């Protein structure tokens, strides 16, 4: 006889597994898909990616509902489940048969209104600000002319394409390294942290752009994650946050060295227009040229004045003679001194002046001889007297290379004592550029 069989007038006896299964089936048939509002508590994440938590009654009643959210559904979350967050969850009721526990299988979940999410944003902002993560003293200046930058974004994001387009248009010489990551969902924060670390450690990277397009506060919540904010603040190279549109604000905007209104604006901050840089360099080169030219002109004028002073010793002699005459006039007026003493003093003074004048004239003469010798050395006629000749074509243009002469050309050769009209009968160039028969040094 089957002990579980029913007898007339006796209650049915259930097996434990059968009863739990029957209750589970009744729950699913009775409730189907339900939406539950409550407060999160006891949030955990398993190594498999599944999330487990409880929902407490939001009105403070003593009621608790254990929940499970499998990996596929958890990956679609736009925020990280945390203790105390008020949420609305959609799913189905079920019994966990090994323990007979009632649990709620959550298929989707969202925060209750943006107000609650904004309150979480403000709380986290106040706490991180108190730690000094947003202090202006921590901000670093961006490199003026970076050669390599890194972009942390999703490979499928339009923001990445916008950044690459701006860099290619404004500064094609700048190399861009892409460090891919997720930019939305509960799994996004750890990938963003890893991508930032990889980008900052890439050799030669001078700045990092964190880029993501606009969206709701839920869409951008990954960039309010505490792990991401701390990674941005600790980035070893200057970082520009280009997250969202102009009106979107996330916590990474406060932690970054510079906040850009859009991903496009972030790229523009790090890529000065190449043509503008060329114009700036040309202006600097022009100023340097003018400064050097002015210095050369000043030195040339000084050299001319020195040459005139050396080549005209008569002027110096005339000045000294004037000095001598003035001294003689003063001596003649010194009536209180004996005439003889005055004459002796005059003679001594005259002797000293003449000696000084003679020495000055000698120095001037030597300087004049040196300059004359230098001028003579630069005289073209002196060069021609050493056996060289000046060769020009029919239009009078000088020929400085054998490659300028062609067979049959009529040339003019000038020596120190005359000239001759010659015709080219043969041309013999040499690979080393030295004409045959010409001695080399």
Overview of this protein structure:
With 441 residues, the chain is of the alpha/beta class. The chain has four domains: 16-111, Beta Barrel (OB fold (Dihydrolipoamide Acetyltransferase, E2P)); 134-272, Rossmann fold, CATH 3.40.50; 278-377; 383-441, no CATH class. The chain has twelve helices and 13 strands. The protein has helices at residues 16-31, 71-74, 113-130, 158-170, 188-201, 226-233, 251-255, 263-270, 274-311, 313-333, 339-377, 380-385, and strands at residues 33-45, 51-56, 64-69, 86-96, 101-111, 148-153, 175-180, 207-212, 239-243, 258-259, 390-392, 410-415, 418-423. The strands form three sheets. The protein has a five-stranded mixed β-barrel. The chain has a five-stranded parallel beta sheet with strand order 7-6-8-9-10. Strands 11-12-13 form a three-stranded antiparallel beta sheet. Strand 9 (239-243), helix 7 (251-255) and strand 10 (258-259) form a beta-alpha-beta unit. It is elongated.
Question: What's this model, at a glance?
Answer:
This protein has 441 residues and is of the alpha/beta class. It contains twelve helices and 13 strands. It has four domains: 16-111, Nucleic acid-binding proteins (OB fold (Dihydrolipoamide Acetyltransferase, E2P), Beta Barrel), CATH 2.40.50.140; 134-272, 3-Layer(aba) Sandwich (Rossmann fold), CATH 3.40.50; 278-377; 383-441, no CATH class.
